[in-house]
Amino acid sequence: MEMTNLNKTAEFAAFYGTTAYYQFFLGTNLTDGVKHLADQYQCFWFLSEIAIRSKNHPKEPFQVWKLKRVSNDSNAFVITGTNGNRKILETVDIPFSDFKAGEVEVWITEGVMLLPSEY
Length: 119
Description:
The protein is α+β, with helices and mostly antiparallel strands. It has helices at residues 10-13, 32-41, 44-54; strands at 22-23, 29-30, 62-69, 77-82, 88-94, 103-109, 112-114. A hairpin with a 7-residue loop joins strand 3 (62-69) and strand 4 (77-82).
């Protein structure tokens, strides 16, 4: 299994700012980088989890959501949401996914999902 952190790859580091916003789910918008992530890695399900779960924490205007493979030889993942200051908001076990990388981090603020490099 691939343990690559997508946020540290040249493919994703090239995204900074955005030229467009894409309407998503529950009034959430995606930046160019997050749209690319979802299209290339077929992980709209991860973004849906963020859109739904971020609404559970309205007092946290900035949130960090990480999808991380449990181990090299596993297709299980964990989604962890924090307030950006290590306060865990939610943890979700994903028993199986075909996500091709080891981990990725997406931030959400003011209803916009973005990659860290786009902040």
